Amino acid sequence: MQPKPVFSKANPIASALVVVVGAIMISIILVLGFVAFLVMAALFAVAGAVLGIRLWWAKHRLERAPENRPNKRNRSVDIIEGDFQIVNKDEDRP
Question: Whole-model pTM?
Answer without folding.
Answer: 0.52
